[in-house]
Amino acid sequence: MQQEAIEIEMKNGVTAPKGFKAVGIHCGVKKSKKDLALIYSEVPATAAAVFTLNKVQAAPVLVCKEYLLNSKNHRAIIVNSGNANACTGDQGYKDALMMAEKTADALNIKPEEIFVSSTGVIGETLPMDKILMGISAIADKLEEDDNLSAAEAIMTTDTFVKAAAESFAIKGKVVTIGGIAKGSGMIHPNMATMLAFVTTDAAIEKETFQIILKNVTDKTFNKIVVDGDTSTNDMVIALANGESGIENLKPGTVEYSLFSKKLYNVLKKLSIDIVKDGEGATKLVEINVTGALNDKDAEKAARAVALSPLVKTAIHGEDANWGRILAAVGYSGIDFDPAKFEIIINGIQILKQNYTVTLPIDEANQTLKHKEIKLLLKLNAGNGGATLWTCDFSEEYVKINGSYRT
User: 34 partner at 20 to 30 Å CA-CA among 140, 142, 240, 376?
Assistant: First the structure.
């Protein structure tokens, strides 16, 4: 019998599962805002992770990959914001290792049990004196219900905290998944300047956990677009400490499917929050493509539309310019008949087959007045489908990125 989710009042984010603590502080990397976060499991946990596909990878990414491969158990994640420690050469790598070593000393665990993460400006070495002093102070501040300060400390151009959690029952025991994320710009499928940290008190073997996380990441974080740039520091790191008391999840079981579904819910919530908080964004756009020859083609079409500056600026200007949408699908590289193309915005059809416009321009533009836009593109060629999330482009995006370093 399938286990149903149970609704309980809970702490949100990474401290929601049993046995996890977190905290965020200001250590001086930024002028005044929190800039150092620590997430800690009171017992050894298995880990899974997904990293950026950018060929230029920041020092923390390289260290995390090494530790994920070589360590069976993990206990903590140390994160600084304000400086990406990317394109910093041997010194950057040594600094990332030092962050792990200092955190290990503070928590009395091994360096390889710690993941290291950084986000911020590229090409500058870390102010290690400030970070090391911060690490010395942060371990004593760990709290079971301080998800908020940790979530604040990983933010850069984000305008709000991104956190989520779900609890559900497996064979009479409560299992919880929690997560926090940051991301606002440089967001594109295959991850971008995006960090996400996930905790759960479920019990999962490492290989199984990696499969679940990769599959769910492909359906959530890899389906969002803000501006098409892919960063050097992206990572999703997940820890499972087994404190719920359930047995190890096994592929092919009802419990495995339920856990995957709930993890999807948490990561989808974080993903959509990232798009909502896109730099300068004023509208969340969900793009659904149906009727493609296959799912791969549907995703290509959706991605082309999500990346198009002309489409994104038209949506911001509330101009239902269907020609820009059709043109983007046309250069996506997929095979389809443009004469069979249809567009529906927030449930209202504005274009039928054979290029038939169904509404006057002024009425069509009204479909884009909402803060959340559902764009349905029907190719009428097959059974393939895909969903991506993106946002509009505004003048504020240029303003934010034109002065990011200053």
Answer: 240
**pLDDT over 90 percentage in the chain:** 79
Q: Which domains does the chain have, with CATH numbers?
A: 13-273 (3.60.70.12), 284-402 (3.10.20.340)
Residue 82 corresponds to which tokens in the numbers above?
A: 């304000």
Q: Which DSSP category does 224 fall into?
A: B
Taking every pair of C-alpha atoms in the chain, what is the biggest distance, in angstroms? 69
Give the mean pLDDT of the chain.
90
* DSSP category for residue 1: -
3-state helix, strand, coil in the chain (%, to 5): 35, 25, 35
Compute how many other C-beta atoms are within 10 angstroms of the C-beta atom of residue 132: 19
What is the spatial distance between Cα 309 and Cα 203, in angstroms, rounded to a whole number? 44
pLDDT at position 146, please?
A: 85
The residues with which 292 forms a beta bridge, in sequence order, are 384
pLDDT tens readout for residues 24-47: 999 999 999 999 999 999 999 999
In angstroms, the CA 262 to CA 249 distance is 14
Cβ atoms within 10 Å, residue 90 = 8
Q: Which amino acid would we find at residue 125?
A: T
DSSP 245: -
Instruction: Identify the pLDDT of residue 11.
Output: 57
Give the span between the Cα atoms of 195 and 67, in whole angstroms: 17
Q: How far apart are CA 283 and CA 276, in angstroms?
A: 7
Pairing of strands 235-240, 195-200: parallel
